[in-house]
Write a structure and sequence with these properties.
Blueprint (H helix, E strand, L loop, with lengths): L8 E3 L3 H4 L10 E4 L10 H4 L5 H15 L8 H10 L4 E6 L4 H9 L4 E8 L15 E8 L15 E3 L4 H7 L7 H11 L5 E4 L6 H8 L3 E5 L3 H11 L22
Parallel strand pairs: 1-8, 2-3, 2-7, 4-6, 7-8
Antiparallel strand pairs: 3-5, 4-5
Length: 256
Amino acid sequence: MLGKYCYNKIYNEDSYKAIKQLPDNCIDLIVIDPPYKLNVNTCENGLKSSNPVTRGMSQTQHELKKKNLHVGIDDELLTEMVRVMKKINIYIWCNKRQLKQYFDFFEKYECNFELLVWCKTNPTPATNNTFLPDIEYCFYFREKGVKLRGSYDTKHKFYIRKTNQEEKALYLHPTIKPLQFIKNFIINSSDVGNVVADFFIGSGTTAVASKELHRNYIGFEIDPEYYKIAVDRINGITAGGQTSIFTDFEQEEVIL
């Protein structure tokens, strides 16, 4: 048990409130893809544009705004994450506007860090006034003394891969991350039986990766639609009700 919560379960709760119920020093690794700090104020006008590129970008922004995925997280939640970790050991997906916030926060703890980069080979088209949105960042912070595991094959810092439109369609999440990326993070930064937490679990990728790698997990998702998708995905069911070809493990408890 983790306070009132159980291992290997996803909860439909607000992370800001739920994390306060977790005991100190109970999590080995955190992997999160929190909301990015995005400017979506003009997306409604763009939906009416005659330009298909502008309409496509505005539709994506509209979906993010509708699910409240355009507002970043604050230092209060980061402080709670530090409290619940045994030692700071965290991966945070982010955009360029958030790099300074996260770096400044964890610099206070004198953490080692790496900046991992996902270069998308099929980015969303951009307007004439912007660069292609073909880069996403993931900060990794680890406290001194935290061991880096993994192998040559899992320790890449630069990933070149297209966005998986099939997984987006299967699990109905606009910002789903490739499963193999998350598996690499978990392999590099935890051991079998460790506890991996995701406070913005979305479509459940961190939970799936943890189960496949025989780690315990706990996840939180405030949106009821994504919560159901994540739970179904863990059970091998896609958002359309079919059995997922991506899930080949059985439901089993991980022994600590």
